[in-house]
Amino acid sequence: MKTKMIFYALLFTCALQAQTKVWFDTDLMIGMPDKTAREVDDGITLIMALKQPQIDIVGISSITYVDYSYDIIQKLLKWHHKGESIPVYKGSPKADDLGVENDATRALYQALKKEKLTILALGPMTNIATLIQNHPDIIPQIEKISICAARTPGQVFNPGNGKLNVFDYNYELDNASMNVLLESSIPLVFAGYEPSSYTHIGNIDLASLDQNEEADKWLFDIVQPWMENNEKYFGVRGFIPFDCSTLGVITHPDYFTYYKDIPIKVNYKKNDALEIQPTTPYKNFLEVSYQFKSKKKVDYAIRALQGFEEKILETLSVKK
What is the pLDDT of residue 35? Predict the structure, then answer.
């Protein structure tokens, strides 16, 4: 018995030592009151991240809607994080002020001075690019950045049954900041629409949530308007949890297939999302291909493998 206890203690110690130190940068909008329901995947990804023993979140920063998201992040931390408190910082309010320091960029700089970190980037790149542009000395402290953006040539962002194409929001809202990352030496991994399109969450999938638990009931209720929105615009009741893949390539890398060291490039092409961008006939596309002649090479997640969706649902049901 004593030998077993020592063995499990060693396993626990090794697990702690193997933790990836992560900074979580998010444009969280879940539940935000608006004319229409807003995306829920950032909130779900944060809940999932807080329950992952293989990562240690050292700080959380927001981008766009920073006042609203600050309160929601605090609510999620109260429900799902029982350990040492995680500091939360407000970043760029509109993702249009590259180079302007804010609480988030200053805090991230100080955190990186203490230790190397992996950055999880779920929104536009403004906070991170501002840090890199203003403090290039800190670049060696960034292990890598996992980003929800980019595509392979010809890949349309069509999260339903063909009714409507959407655009590469995180890239297009601030492509100047993305360019800063692409010009840096930082290792980048992209996991956005393409791998996430192999996962889909509906009411049946969320049946494992405990309706008697305040946190679970809140999550179940708050995703319903988003599901209705998806049914209206995409013909499918449910949603693709985009940002869960961006986290998944850090926490569950074996559940994805990749293009490794693939060139990435910005191409100016005909807009494939004219339904929602009617005044933009042409635009920049952030694309990866082994045919491109580009100095910058990245890792690109192509597909979430069978079992990853189950990992998302299992994690959401974990009680801490």
Answer: 76
